[in-house]
Amino acid sequence: MKRIFIILLLVGTMFTSVSAQKISAVKVPVEVKGAFAKLYPGVKANWEIEKQDYEAGFTLNGKATSVVYTAKGVLLETETAIKPNELPAVILAKLKGNKIAEAAKITKADGSIRYEAEVNGKDLLFDLSGNPVKP
C-alpha cells in the first residue's frame, strides 16, 4: 500500500511540474518585472511559471495577451488572442470543416510570427505560409 501511495505521489508531482503554475508577482524576478514594466507601463498582469520561464497574462486593447520571459528578463514571445476568422486565409483553408475554438498570433523575439488554432482540444501551430510548426 505504501508503495502504491509513493508511485501515485511521484506521478502527481510529474504532472504538476509540467503544467504552468500561477504565482504571486512577489515571486517574479526583478529583471522580469522590470522588462515587463518597460514594455507595458502601468499594466497589471497575472503571472505564471512554466519550467524556468515566466508568463504575464493581461488584456491589451481589449485582447487577451501574454508575454513570456526568461528568468533574466529576456523576452521570448508575445501571444495575442485573435478571432478564428482573423487567421490567415491559407491557414483557414487548411482547417476548413474544423471548428476552431480559439486562435492566437504569436510573435517570437526574433520577429517571426506563428499562428495557433485550437481544434478538437489540441493547439495547432502554423507559420505564415500555413505550414504546420512543432511547438
From TrEMBL:
Signal sequence, start to end: 1-20
SUPFAM superfamilies registered for this protein in UniProt: BT0923-like (SSF160574)
Keyword Signal: yes
Swiss-Prot/TrEMBL keywords: Signal
Name of protein: PepSY-like domain-containing protein
